[in-house]
Specification:
This protein is an alpha/beta fold. It contains 5 helices and 6 strands. The protein has one domain: Flavodoxin domain (Rossmann fold). Strands 1, 2, 3, 4, 5 and 6 form a 6-stranded parallel beta sheet that branches.
């Protein structure tokens, strides 16, 4: 299966998780294209079926800077994504109560508004409780994959 992996990372933790998730998916025979920057056009979402977003939160619950152009374009252009199936791995810090995992929640929200179908529960990882977010994300992957294939 071809999977577009979109990674939003401010300090590098989400990118580390994305790298390991990519390796795990590829070792399972999936074709993975990992995107860490670019614009909406470069994603080619019209030609995609499966997307996995791994993103952290920055500022007051915002998406990381490398995802801002994509997120902003989704909000402004509002393409029809009803053909798309997706999952989200979100990273945040519960010490920031009002904005905990705000970035992942915003990405999840806009994808859903545009008609994309979330195939399983979003994985939200708290930096204070999850010292190994990569292991938690990899442990969650079979749930995502089973939902895509089901």
């Amino acid at each position: 299966m071809e999977i577009l992996l979109i990674v939003g990372s401010e300090m590098g933790n989400a990118e580390m998780v994305g790298d390991l998730v990519k390796d795990e998916l590829e070792s399972g025979g999936h074709e993975v294209e990992m995107i860490t920057d670019g614009d909406l056009d470069s994603l080619g979402l019209a030609d995609r079926d499966a997307v996995l977003v791994v993103t952290s939160t920055t500022g007051l619950g915002d998406v990381p800077q490398n995802l801002e152009p994509i997120y902003d374009a989704l909000v402004e252009e509002r393409p029809d994504l009803s053909h798309l199936r997706y999952g989200v791995v979100g990273m945040g810090d519960r010490n920031y109560k009002d904005s905990y995992c705000g970035g992942p929640r915003k990405v999840d929200g806009i994808l859903e508004q545009l008609g994309a179908r979330r195939v399983c529960e979003t994985l939200l990882l708290d930096a204070t409780d999850n010292p190994t977010p990569d292991e938690d994300a990899i442990a969650w992957l079979p749930t995502y994959l089973a939902a895509l294939e089901g």
